[in-house]
Amino acid sequence: MAWILLKGLNMDRFMIGRKLFDRTIGMVQRTLDIRGARHQVISGNIANAETPDYVARDLPFQKVFEKSLEGPGFLNLKRTHQLHLPLHQETTTDFSRDIERASTPGVEVDQQMANLAENNLKFQAGVQALIKKFESLRVSVTEVK
Predict the structure, then answer these.
(1) Which domain covers residue 55, as residue numbers?
(2) Residue 35 near residue 61, CB atoms below 8 Å
(3) Kind and range of the H or E element at 100?
């Protein structure tokens, strides 16, 4: 997705390592993918609030994000410290296996609306981080003489 915007731009010429760029963009992209999927799950809960015996579902962001860091698709690079995050190269947006169900039927609409608002704010923060990253890249490219 992000590389479509940069197609044809020789990153090595500007001494910007693609791996460093991929790391940030990849992490933010993954965050936005999970937040978008969580939005759909919460919206489904709200839409089914009146459905008899409907059990609310959730996509726990932190758990899914951490799991995605350990999955296949990471670059085979050497980690210099055990606390460093691995790099993720390809992602999947199918989170259906990660959806959790509440223990009791019913939907608390107020709670779901609060969850939706919080998720939306965090999604927007991710978008802003992506915008800042691209702005930083634009400045570094245009400042190179």
Answers:
(1) 18-77+87-139
(2) yes
(3) strand 100-101
Kindly tell me if the per-residue pLDDT of 116 is higher than 80.
yes
Q: Which residue has the tokens 């500007």?
A: 14
Pairwise CA distance, residues 87 & 104, whole Å: 38
* 42 in any annotated domain: yes
- The predicted-structure confidence for 42-92, as pLDDT tens digits, reads as follows 999 999 999 999 999 999 999 988 888 775 544 444 556 666 655 544 445
Helix (H, G, I), strand (E, B) or coil at 6: coil
Residue 106 lies in a domain: yes
Q: How far apart are CA 56 and CA 41, in angstroms?
A: 9
Is the entire prediction scored with pTM above 0.85?
no
Structure tokens at 3: 């590389």
Could you tell me how many residues make up the chain? Answer: 145
